[in-house]
């Protein structure tokens, strides 16, 4: 039997889906998420090499042939990809491997193959230009001084370093906002029974902390998004779409800040914002769509090709970016 797994191994959580063909008529789909057990500062290939075996050991049956779709960051290096291919075939025992990008499959989930993707992740914000399913690395960029981790650091400072992960999640969901107001923050009962805020914390203070998600002393996500979109629209005049991914997109006021930036009069074309049902799992959903297309088989690297050409040779056979 054949089993296909789509894996989006983020710095904070591991999101994946398993498609198992138990018989010719039915396809069972399992979509799950788990906390990444890796340190957020390890390299991308090391994170995959640690997390994927743990995932497969509890999910994959011994009689199933494994096809693995790994969703990568836009600027994943060729050397890192070769290392991942080696691990997939030599360590994980894969029969087929497809290396693709979270930005591309996120667009697939929105029904498009071209556009600009802003991924508000834990360890940074990735802004990617995609045209006809291929990432355009030359006009894409990554901002490492912003993101959800920066927001968490600011909240730890406000809460005097005593906040648990569940506390941070509740505060970000119910209290954080990029819309500045002067009234008091509404009280929130935390899992340990305590009440947030512990003192007279004003919403304006929480607003300043929340800005760390999009702004730092050296970076501005709205301005960078507008710049990437302008370059994208000049190069690909028929592509006007953009979409948000990542857990940071769920913070109140983020959508308004980015939409306001995209309405700037310097933009050559009127930008069309795409909306997703689930911004955190959209890349995996797009990976499921990709795995059902006829073209998917040609995008995979088989074990026979790997044995003949090696990891470096196989990478030249699979063109999914503009490099």
Characterize this entry briefly.
This protein is an alpha/beta fold and 323 residues long. It has helices at residues 44-59, 78-91, 102-109, 148-158, 165-174, 203-210, 221-235, 254-262, 282-291, 296-299, 303-317; strands spanning 2-9, 13-20, 28-35, 65-72, 96-101, 115-120, 125-131, 134-135, 141-143, 188-189, 195-196, 241-245, 272-274, 301-302.
CATH class bucket of the largest domain = Alpha Beta
Topology-level CATH name of the largest domain: Nucleotidyltransferase, domain 5
Overall tally of domains: 3
Oligomer: single chain
Supply Rg: 21 Å
The whole-number mean of residue pLDDT values reads 83
Q: Helices and strands: which structural class?
A: alpha/beta
β content, as a range? 15-25%
Give, in spatial order, the strands making up the sheet with the most strands. 3-2-1-4-5-14
Helicity range of the residues? 25-40%
CATH superfamily of the largest domain: ATPase, nucleotide binding domain
Q: Please give the CATH architecture of the largest domain.
A: 2-Layer Sandwich
Count of distinct strands: 14
List low-confidence stretches.
23-28
Pfam families: Actin
InterPro entries: Actin, ATPase_NBD
Family: Belongs to the actin family.
Protein name: Actin
């Amino acid at each position: 039997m054949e089993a296909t797994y789509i894996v989006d191994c983020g710095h904070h959580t591991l999101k994946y889906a398993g498609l198992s063909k138990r018989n010719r008529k039915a396809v069972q789909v399992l979509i799950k998420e788990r906390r990444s057990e890796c340190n957020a500062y390890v390299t991308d290939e090391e994170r995959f090499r640690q997390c994927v075996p743990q995932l497969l050991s509890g999910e994959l049956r011994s009689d199933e042939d494994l096809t693995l779709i790994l969703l990568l960051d836009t600027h994943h290096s060729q050397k890192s990809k070769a290392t991942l291919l080696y691990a997939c075939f030599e360590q994980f025992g894969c029969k087929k491997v497809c290396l693709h990008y979270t930005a591309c499959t996120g667009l697939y989930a929105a029904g498009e193959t071209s556009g600009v993707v802003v991924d508000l992740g834990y360890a940074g914000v990735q802004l990617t230009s995609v045209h006809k399913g291929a990432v355009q690395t030359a006009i894409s960029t990554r901002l490492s001084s912003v993101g959800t981790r920066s927001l968490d650091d600011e909240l730890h400072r406000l809460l005097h370093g005593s906040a648990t992960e569940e506390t941070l999640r509740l505060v970000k969901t119910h209290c954080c906002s990029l819309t500045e107001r002067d009234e008091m923050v509404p009280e929130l009962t935390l899992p340990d029974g305590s009440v947030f805020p512990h003192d007279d914390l004003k919403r304006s203070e929480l607003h300043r902390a929340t800005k760390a998600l999009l702004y730092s002393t050296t970076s501005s996500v709205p301005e960078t998004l507008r710049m990437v979109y302008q370059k994208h629209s000049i190069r690909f005049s028929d592509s006007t779409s953009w979409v948000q991914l990542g857990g940071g997109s769920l913070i109140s006021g983020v959508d308004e800040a980015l939409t306001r930036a995209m309405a700037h009069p310097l933009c050559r074309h009127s930008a069309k914002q795409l909306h997703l049902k689930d911004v955190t799992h959209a890349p995996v959903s797009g990976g499921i769509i990709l795995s059902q297309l006829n073209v998917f088989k040609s995008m995979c690297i088989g074990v026979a090709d790997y044995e003949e050409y090696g990891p470096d040779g196989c990478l030249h056979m699979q063109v999914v970016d503009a490099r």
